[in-house]
Amino acid sequence: MRRFVSALALLLAAPLAFSLSLRDVTAVLDPTVTLASLSAAAAAGAPLPGAGKLVVLTGVVQSVEILTRDAQGFQAEIELVEGEWHGVSSISLYRCIVELAGPAFAARLAARPSPSVAARELILPNERILVLGEVEGTRTYPNGEIVPVVVGSYVRGI
After folding, report:
1. pTM of the model
2. Contact 61, 127 (CB under 8 A)
3. Domain containing 57 — which CATH number?
4. 3-state SS record for 104-125
5. Residue 60 · residue 3 · CB < 8 Å
6. Tens of pLDDT along 123-140?
7. How many domains does the structure of the chain reveal?
8. What is the pLDDT of residues 13-33, one digit of tens each?
9. Structural domain range at position 58
10. Is residue 151 in a domain?
11. 41 occurs within a structural domain
């Protein structure tokens, strides 16, 4: 959580160095959206928070699915999850699908990564990541669970 707050503070502070106001930043970025708030809205069938704006999400990569391997038309989906304990006996699990496309992600999600890609830049299952992206909608899993879908534009390990 501390890393998320630090990353969010950096994202919000960076534009200030370029003389942008917080109002300018929040016109394009919704800093209030979390994986929990997205998941809750999707499950309730409510409008998704952050629609039309960028959102910053953190979580653990549960799975990676490569849809198209061709470097120029590369497409993949990762399932991002986060848990929250309630006392000592129950936990809530929040999840979303992050769609990734383009050659920049091809090398970072490759089955055999290029030696030119630093290990810290790889997107692997069980790794904690930060995602900057746009809320696209929802998808229904075969078990009936409705999960939010985010189009990722930036991903890094944390």
Report:
1. 0.80
2. yes
3. 2.40.50.140
4. HHHCCCCCCCCCCCCHHHCCCC
5. no
6. 888 899 999 999 999 999
7. 1
8. 555 556 667 777 778 888 999
9. 30-157
10. yes
11. yes
